[in-house]
Specification:
Layout (H helix, E strand, L loop, with lengths): L31 H7 L6 E5 L10 H11 L4 E5 L18 E5 L5 H5 L25 H12 L5 E4 H5 L5 E3 L4 E3 L2 H5 L3 E3 L4 H12 L13 E5 L7 E4 H4 L62 E4 L3 H6 L1 H13 L9 E5 L2 E5 L8 H8 L17 H6 L2 E3 L1 E2 L10 H4 L5 E2 L2 H14 L6 E2 L1 E3 L13 H6 L19 H11 L6 E2 L7 H4 L3 H10 L4 E7 L3 H7 L4 H17 L5 E8 L6 H13 L8 E2 L7 H8 L21 H11 L7 H10 L19 H23 L6
Parallel strand pairs: 1-2, 1-3, 3-4, 4-7, 9-10, 10-11, 13-17, 16-18, 19-20, 20-21
Antiparallel strand pairs: 5-6, 7-8, 8-12, 11-12, 14-15
Helix pairs in contact: 2-7, 10-22, 16-18, 18-20, 21-23
């Protein structure tokens, strides 16, 4: 029986592997010649990635490679190997332990196609910004090639593409529900999230002779399971969160904020069990829960949750949405239990998420001997992703926002992992001293979110039992630390470093949190805005915002007032640039029209619009596919239907509402407004959304309308042929 420790071994406490004697490589080798120069006869681990190799802590393969190197292993990198040539996968020989495969820092399908499924011809993670250097579904293709050349070598898959496909998921590009990537790729094990902890333990255990098929107790891992191990009890997912109508059941997604989460009193909830076949040893007792958090008191080392099977979620949208609810409830490392899903003859077993890295461990990861530049083999070729981040510093990981369209929760988790102040300042000095082209400007000091640094739950016990998917929606939890003093102090100390002229904050700002600390907002606005500050309200209307789990516009206006006041006090002309999503599930034509009016009334002219992109396993993608709302209790008699713009015409129209000022969109918008009964918004003046037709346009319309009538008259007057 697995034991999922709440206090794992520290990354830097493992005994080093014998190859430590070779020392760190200048760059992880990408060729046999480089291996020869290092004195290596072979690699212990070979990492295969869809990105160009940049030896920098913002690039996943560099991080994993350097972390394994620090444990004493010889690590090589196959960067963007030609998947059409199996010999490209023999370039470094046969690894002694395993291949580690990732699509790269981005999902290969999102990297290759736009939200409208159009092919991209560029790739920011490739030298020369050249598209087409990685295959579609790179994890699957790379793994199969590794199997083809060295069939006896284990394959470990990871990175964001694998993370988001660890269970059955809707695939936007094929418009089907697909199996776990483990099934399609035939990999031995999948490591999801930031996988340093799991990767280090896995590698040491394999190096000591343990078979990869025997390693089934790693947090943050998923694997094929042909039979359930003895000693485990099964909980059917429908007993945890029913897909049928349930009376008086507490809703964890909309419940009041827990103020006594550590209260010892158990609350029993009576719920009708869904009629389903039950496996042997199924837990059928009522489940104890803690108020509002629904932290079900079952031992994650002895019980697992049986999710609806692949066949069930393919054929039943309600069960697909139900599976989404279960998946997102089991994301807290403190109380998550293994998830099991049948996919044909095998089960997919997904262990609980990894324990977040402690500050000392995260510092250690970022302090490895990165060269902070691309591999020399790329010469003078530009890698846009590197150019964007080479003067930036990542200060934290994770996000507790829980936005339904975002993949951070599914990948990094919602518990914030922060670096120490000294580690961050040391990295700024490394940029100053080592990075070519540094002019004294730090381009970003942030992470997934700019202002969540060291913002954690006030009580560790509460954090470990909570099952809320967001700490800030529908409003900020009373147990969340909102004091930004650590971030404010970090900004001030960074500015004071010798050689640093300016520090810009370019990461996304959670402004509903920022307004809780006016001193932070003043510091940010006075010193760290480069003329424009990008923020993301995403929409103006409550309907779509509730489906996104984003705050209403009240906090936007509050932040806007602070921003303008502090900018004026600093004697600066600065502007807020809001970002919006078009065609998000729950956004109707009327909602998009209202957003267009809001933009016009506030004199915003959006140049670029992000159409909603259904990424695998996101809750918004579940809404898009099933037209059900997984943020509320599901029921077969629940008649709520979420509208999603799916056709090309619908998505184009939603995008056009945000670009109301573009003359190319006016004919489409006029037609839509008339169809919606809102022709009153067509005309010249501040109260109108789009202007009426010009004299020339009206004449063209008259000529076009005459053509069908003329053709009809012509056909009637034409002589008939005799039979």
């Amino acid at each position: 029986m697995a034991v999922f420790s709440a206090k794992p071994q520290s990354l830097f406490d493992y005994p080093k592997y014998w190859a430590e004697c070779f020392g760190p490589a200048p760059f992880l080798p990408m060729s046999r010649d480089e291996m020869d120069q290092l004195g290596w006869d072979s690699c212990d681990v070979i990492l295969v990635t869809g990105d160009a190799y940049v030896d920098h802590p913002s690039f996943g393969m560099a991080v994993i490679g350097r972390v394994l190197e620090s444990q004493g292993y010889r690590v090589g990198i196959l960067s963007q190997p030609d998947w059409r040539d199996k010999e490209a996968f023999r370039a470094l020989g046969k690894p002694n332990l395993y291949f580690g495969v990732t699509a790269g820092n981005m999902d290969s399908m999102i990297n290759r196609y736009t939200a409208d499924r159009r092919l991209r011809h560029d790739d920011a993670y490739t030298a020369g910004d050249e598209g087409g250097k990685r295959p579609d579904r790179a994890v699957t293709v790379y793994t199969q090639k590794c199997r083809e050349v060295f069939s006896d070598v284990p394959v470990v898959v990871g990175g964001i593409e694998a993370s988001l496909r660890r269970l059955a998921h809707y695939d936007y590009w094929s418009e089907t529900v697909k199996r776990s990537v483990l099934m399609d790729s035939t990999a031995d094990i999948l490591l999801y999230g930031n996988a340093e902890r799991a990767m280090v333990e896995l590698t040491h255990r394999m190096a000591s002779g343990e078979s990869i098929r025997e390693i089934t107790d790693l947090r943050g891992s998923a694997f094929l399971c042909r039979e359930i191990p003895k000693g485990w009890k099964e909980i059917d997912s429908t007993s945890v969160d029913q897909p049928g109508r349930v009376e008086k059941q507490k809703n964890p997604y909309e419940g009041a904020h827990p103020t006594q989460c550590d209260d010892a009193k158990d609350i029993r909830i009576k719920a009708d069990r869904a009629q389903a076949e039950v496996a042997p040893e199924v837990e059928t007792k009522p489940l104890s829960i803690i108020p509002d958090t629904q932290a079900i008191k079952t031992d994650p080392s002895a019980t697992y949750i049986r999710m609806p099977s692949f066949d069930q979620v393919v054929n039943d949208p309600v069960l697909y949405a139900h599976a989404d609810r279960i998946f997102h409830r089991e994301t807290n490392p403190g109380n998550a239990r293994p998830l099991v899903q049948s996919q044909g003859r095998n089960d997919i077993w997904v262990n609980p998420p990894p324990i977040p890295l402690e500050t000392e461990e995260l510092d250690w990861v970022f302090e490895q001997p990165y060269k902070r530049v691309p591999h020399p083999s790329y010469g003078e070729s530009k890698i846009p992703a590197y150019d964007m981040i080479r003067f930036s510093v990542n200060i934290m990981r994770g996000c507790f926002g829980g936005c339904t369209f975002c993949s951070i929760t599914e990948h990094e988790g919602r518990i914030i992992q922060s670096r120490s102040e000294q580690s961050i300042l040391d990295e700024v000095e490394k940029i100053r001293d080592l990075t070519p082209g540094f002019t004294g400007v730090i381009s970003d000091l942030g992470g997934p979110t700019a202002n969540m640094y060291r913002l954690n739950c006030k009580d560790k016990k509460i954090e470990e039992t909570c099952r809320r998917p967001s700490c800030v929606y529908p409003s900020i939890c009373v147990n969340l630390e909102t004091d930004h003093r650590h971030t404010t102090q970090l900004y001030r100390k960074t500015r004071q470093l010798e050689g640093v002229k300016k520090v810009v904050v370019a990461s996304g700002l959670r402004y509903d949190l920022a307004v809780k600390d006016p001193e932070y907002v003043k510091e940010l606005v006075t010193h760290h805005v480069g003329g424009y500050l990008k923020i993301a309200p995403e929409h103006s209307e409550d309907g779509p915002l509730t489906k996104m789990m984003k705050p209403g516009m009240g906090s936007y206006y509050e932040f806007k007032e602070m921003f303008e006041r502090f900018s004026k006090e600093a004697g600066k002309k600065q502007y807020l640039i809001p970002y919006f999503i078009s065609a998000h599930p729950g956004a109707t034509n009327e909602d998009m029209m209202s957003l267009g009016l809001w933009l016009k009334n506030n004199d915003f002219r959006v140049d670029q619009v992000q159409n909603f992109y259904p990424s695998p396993m996101a809750s918004a993608t579940t809404m898009y596919y099933t037209e059900k709302n997984p943020l509320k209790p599901l029921g077969r008699n629940n008649d709520e239907k979420i509208f999603s713009a799916k056709t090309k015409e619908q998505r184009t129209l939603h995008k056009a509402f945000l670009r109301y000022h573009d003359p190319d969109n006016w004919p489409m918008l006029r037609k839509a407004l008339r169809r919606m009964g809102r022709a009153d918004l067509i005309g010249t003046g501040a109260s109108f959304l789009v202007p009426g037709e010009s004299r020339r346009e009206k004449e063209v319309q008259r000529r076009e309308s005459r053509k069908p009538r003329a053709q009809a008259r012509s056909s009637r007057s034409a002589p008939r042929r005799r039979k």
